[in-house]
Amino acid sequence: MACFIFTCGTHNFRSLLAGYENVTVQCQNCGNFSGNIVKNWEWFTFCFVPLIPFSLKPWHAVHCNVCQFQQDVKYRPDVEQQMQQAGGGGAAQAIPMQNQGANQGWNRPPPPPPPGQGGAVPQYK
Q1: 71 phi and psi, to 5 degrees?
Q2: What is the pLDDT of residue 121?
Q3: Which residues are CB-contacts of 123 (< 8 A; sequence separation ≥ 6)?
Q4: Residue range 84-97: average pLDDT?
Q5: pLDDT tens by residue, 2-23
Q6: pTM of the complete model
Q7: How buried is residue 100: exposed, middle or buried, by Cβ count under 10 Å (0-12/13-18/19+)?
Q8: How far apart are CA 34 and CA 42, in angstroms?
Q9: Is the pLDDT of residue 98 over 60?
């Protein structure tokens, strides 16, 4: 009697997107500026051998090297804008995201009136 064990699964092949090797953007999960634009291609594997791709072309994503979070570039308008400005393959500059922290200045008091203009400053509650 013979016993055969086969393993099936998936493997994600990842590489930096051509033309964006030096672009680093902010991760929307952890906030670190360590996100790279990568090309992902997922394959079905049998006994650790990739056999069938799940799609005919790879998908582009922002991959964080710190927390390993991946986000499709279609959900990142800052990266989409860079890709369109660069013609889809030229060198691009990273556009930092706005501060996503808890203290965004909503609790700050309003600025004082300009010099020479008296009057009360409206209080917002």
Answers
A1: -140, 130
A2: 55
A3: 110
A4: 54
A5: 888 888 888 788 888 888 888 8
A6: 0.55
A7: exposed
A8: 23
A9: no
* HEC string for 45-106: EECCEEEEECCCCCEEEEEECCCCCEEEHHHCHHHHHHHHHCCCCCCCCCCCCCCCCCCCCC
The residue type at 87: G
34: amino acid identity, one letter: S
* Residue 89 CB-half CA count within 13 A: 1
Q: What sign results for the dihedral spanned by CA atoms 86, 57, 17, 28? A: positive
Interior angle at CA 74, CA 71 and CA 78, nearest 5? 90
DSSP state of 39: E
Which residue, among 9, 42, 38, 8, has the nearest Cα to 23 in the 3D structure? Answer: 38
85: Cβ–Cβ under 8 A, 6 or more apart, which residues?
A: 92
